């Protein structure tokens, strides 16, 4: 959905915004910080964005914290300018606000709330020893990127900052604290810091596992208790504080934005993806595709055994979810498209980005179902799902390959979901998890029917795409903010799950058009053949990481 497709009349929207009844969601993604402004029913009113990139500093993927604050302000400024241009009003008041960001990673703070070490993102895969130690001690899979893995990695490495740690959080939690003063986290994001357990008092960190952590020999000498470092856990709809004067100035240095807006619990991009696709009930799932990709499947029950390919997290309302996460998705594909864009420029053709993507994706749709013997490894970084420690983007083809533009693009689309398909085979084929439909969102799905069909064939599962799928997590976070404002008005005593599900079903998605594609026999067979070759060639990808600096 774009500004041009908004159906609300401009006077109504202008009044809504000027009276402070619009709801704002901001998501700090891997390549963009994006803002979405919506009305009470989730209808998109305006968007803003700011492009940024991670950096590899001292062998660690990071974003400088200065870039976080500069990017937030630039994103909000872009949104405010759109509002001014579209509706001729200033964005001075908000009905509610919510912050989301890429999940997991490591932000360690001292007693003054100052950063002790540069932000370590989910992309870092050097926490293997710590994650293995925790997985064995806890009796469940603890991923490399989880905050507790990063914390224990720092302890094992005897890093100087460890004794000074007074709090740890995620990027969303850190930004939320700066905007409101509250050290809280939505349960979906919190479940990527430390395992969550449900009880009679609701959902919170697993107290037994916190005790297990405290009894590890490795942390015997640290001067803190992990339970004291973690942010408070909240569920969707709970009041997470209000935007402070200082927070308003962080978002809008011009001073136009007023303080006082109620805020939603800060969430991770996995949780906002579930909300943006209405995939929050059992036997539904969603795929979020960006620089990284993850599939979330809401479970009917537990898994047969802990699986290293599967992370156990939760929905924003606290229900159990199996998560298949990959470090790589569209990054290499975007770079290939950049090469084609430059080629067009050399020919004197300045091709619009949307047109370029649509044209090349359409070519990929015309490629052979098995990509004609062309393989693409899109590994800009390591990939835990396939056991690749250090990624190197790699294009490989057999001697008999039919190397055409169509098959090259088909291989790129196959490769974007390659590692995800490997992990999903474990969940669907080995664990026999029930899944009726997979909802998709992310920019790769903007070209209608192409990546959506590839994903349906890869997973052998119907894939649905809603009107707002391309808006992704910022829109999902805006919906959570609107839901929080709605709950704050009272009158709804239903459970967190029922309240969120009801809001999405009745207020947001009732009028949304959803397009569903079934897997095709030819496409599913072709992808399966391609995936077998992909698995067989993984030793080549691993060798590339070992041999090429």
Automatic annotation (TrEMBL):
Residues 286-484 form the Carbohydrate kinase FGGY C-terminal domain. Keywords: Carbohydrate metabolism, Kinase, Transferase, Xylose metabolism. One of its GO terms (molecular function) is kinase activity. InterPro entries: ATPase_NBD, FGGY_C, FGGY_Carb_Kinase, FGGY_N. CDD domains: ASKHA_NBD_FGGY_BaXK-like (cd07809). Residues 24-250 form the Carbohydrate kinase FGGY N-terminal domain. The keyword Nuclease does not apply. GO terms for biological process: D-xylose metabolic process. It holds the Pfam family FGGY_C. Belongs to the FGGY kinase family. This is ATPase. The lineage of its organism: Bacteria, Bacillati, Actinomycetota, Actinomycetes, Micrococcales.
